[in-house]
């Protein structure tokens, strides 16, 4: 699987953008979104804040905010040492807009729109529940998608931690995070899932509400937090305090604590080991069901204990 190059991100980072509207203060800009039925992120106001300079580059059509800067849209916030906003001519809708003096001062006009924000240095993204850290970030304001790279990159949700070597991608609208390169999801109760590429999907708002109501009724708190499921591709490994299971690809369901692994599966518990084409692993009970493929039988190695049993 070919990993994406950060300097040329996914095709879904197409820009439709936001209208540069007005200057709120010497260190703040507000951006009002155009309306588009296909994009849930539209219709919200974006605020940009900075502490030092605002530099407008007419040739590159960028605005650079330095000294500690912030981009805020709804409950989603991006903080960094420096933010660079990318502008382009706005598609004409037949409605004439006169540029205000304030927008001219910031280097923008009602004919320009912001479609991307790039973050450099001590990048911190967060909303009411999730947050991530990295050295370099890219925010597509139209699709509401964020990407981060960095040496100590990590992303946290309630009761889960995701880390990755190459790239972390976050979709705040759907609460989906994807890690590229030695990606790991660790739950608060010690379960650890690693893969070359990992996609973690959080519970929907309806599922979260149902879980909260259930916890209020029975007094038990969900061990899985907000994680609904996680998919792994390439060198998948699932670890608990009792066993380790590996395979080429797999899926983990957080609610029932079940995992299914496919391809060159190996399940190890203590000195005992089973191999097969597929396996269903119950991480709650420690019981695994090995499944043979069309040509590969299940194989097992059982080591007796010291008593010979």
UniProtKB/TrEMBL annotation:
Biased amino acid composition, Polar residues: 92-107
Top-rank taxon, per record: Bacteria
Positions of the UniProt region annotated as Disordered: 89-109
Pfam (any one): LptD_N
Signal peptide: 1-32
GO BP, sorted A to Z: lipopolysaccharide transport
Keywords: Signal
Residue stretches making up the Organic solvent tolerance-like N-terminal domain: 56-161, 220-286
Keyword Membrane belongs to the record: no
Protein name: Organic solvent tolerance-like N-terminal domain-containing protein
Lineage: Bacteria, Pseudomonadati, Pseudomonadota, Alphaproteobacteria, Acetobacterales
